What we know:
Elements: H1 9-15, H2 22-36, H3 38-52, H4 63-81, H5 89-101, H6 106-128, H7 136-184, H8 191-201, E1 206-215, H9 227-232, E2 238-242, E3 246-252, H10 256-269, E4 274-276, E5 280-282, H11 286-298, E6 307-309, H12 314-321, H13 323-338, H14 342-357, H15 362-369, H16 373-387, H17 394-408
Parallel strand pairs: 4-6
Antiparallel strand pairs: 1-3, 1-4, 1-5, 2-3
Helix pairs in contact: 1-7, 2-4, 2-6, 2-7, 3-4, 3-6, 4-7, 5-7, 6-7, 11-12, 12-17, 13-17, 14-15, 14-16, 15-16
Amino acid sequence: MNRRSGGTVEERLLIGEPEKTLVEKEINALATVLLERVGQLAKEMAARIRAGSRDYHYDVVPAEELEAACRTHLGNALRALTGQVPVDTEAAARIGRRRALQNVPLPAVMTAYRIGVKYFWEAVLAEATTNPEVGSDMLVAAASAMWVLQDGITEAMVSGYHDAVAERLVAHEHERSALVEALLEGRSMDADAAWSAAEVLGVPRKGPFAVVAAEVPHIGRQALPEAAALLSRRGIRSAWRLRPDMQLGIVYLRTPRDLNDLAEVLRQHTKQRVGVSPSYDDLCRTGEALRFAKVAMRGGDAESGAVTVFDDSPVAVASAGAPDVMARVATTVLGPIEALPAGDCELLLDTLDAWFDCGGSAEEAAKRLYVHPNTVRLRLRRIAERTGRSLTDPRGITELSLALRAVRQTPKPPFSTGSADTADN
C-alpha cells in the first residue's frame, strides 16, 4: 500500500503522515488550541474523576497527584493529535503501576479513565462548536483518532497495573516463604518478630497450630499442589514451604474439627506419605513440631502413601522414632517370615496387617482379603509358629505390631519371583 495515500485519518495522524487533508489540519489546530489550556482542563478532569469515583480518596490519591496524572494523559493525547509526537504509552504504564501500589482497585481505575475520556470528548466538542466552519466529518475523524489514542493509553495503564500486582505478589510470597522457613528451622524470634510473622502468614499469634510434612514425588515437585487454596475452601488458613525432599506447611487449627478436615484433605489430594504433628500454641515452637511431623510421616506405609496424625498413631510414630533400632526389632521378630520366598512373605505380612486393622477379627480380615476366615487363622498360626510370638499374648501382639510397622515404613525393593502357594500349607 502507498503510505502517502493510504490508511485512515487517525492512522496517518499517529504515524505523522506529512501530507495532510483539510480535516487533519483542522484536528491538529483544534488539539493545539486545547493544548494551550491543558492545565485548566486537567484541573476540571481531576474534579470530575474525584466526584465520580468513590475509591479516589484524597488520602489514597492526593489532589496534586491526580491532577498531574490528568495533565500527563491530556498532554500526551493532545500532542499526538497535533501531529507533534506519537502517543507515549510509558507514562500510562507508570500511572497504572502507581495506582496498583496505592491499592486502588483496577475497576475503580478503569472507571476513572472512562470519566476522563468522556470529559476529554466533551472538551473537544465544546471547542469545536466555537468554530462554525467545523463540520461533522472533522468530528467523526477526531472521535476515531481520540478513541485509538485512548485505547492504547488504557491498555498500557492496565498492563502497568498488572505488572505491579504481579511483582508485589511475588515479593509477598518470597517474604512468606522466608518466614515459614525461619519458623520451621526453629530460629529464635522476639515478640515483635513473632507478631510480624503471624501477620504476614495471615494467622493469629497464638494457636493451636500443626505442622504438615509430606514426601515429594520427585525432587522439587509438590506433594500437595494448591494446598493453601484447598484448605482455605474449608476455612483453614495455612502457609507452605517446598524443600527438595519435602513439602512443609504450618496450619492454623481454629476449631477441633479443623484437624479432621485437614487430615481428610490430605488423604484426598496426595499419594505420598504425610505426617501431621501434635497441635501447639506458640509459633516459636514450630521447629519442634516439625520434628514430630517428620516422625509421623516416616510412620506411614511407604507403599500406600498414608496420612499419619502423630497423636492418633502411637505405634506408628514410636516405630518411626528410632528407625535403626526398629530395623533391628523387625529383623529379630519377623526375620523368619522375611526368609520365606517373596510371595509367601508378603502374603503373611498382608494377612497380619489386615488382622491388626480389623481389631484382631479373623472374620473381618477375611472379608478384606477375600478369603475364608479359616484361611486367615491358618496364616496367623504359621506366623506364630515361625516367629515364636503368640497372637493371644499381649507382649507377643505388641512385638509383632511394632515389627510390622517398621517393615511397612521401609520402601521395599522389587520382589524376586517366588511361589505363594505354600503360604497356606
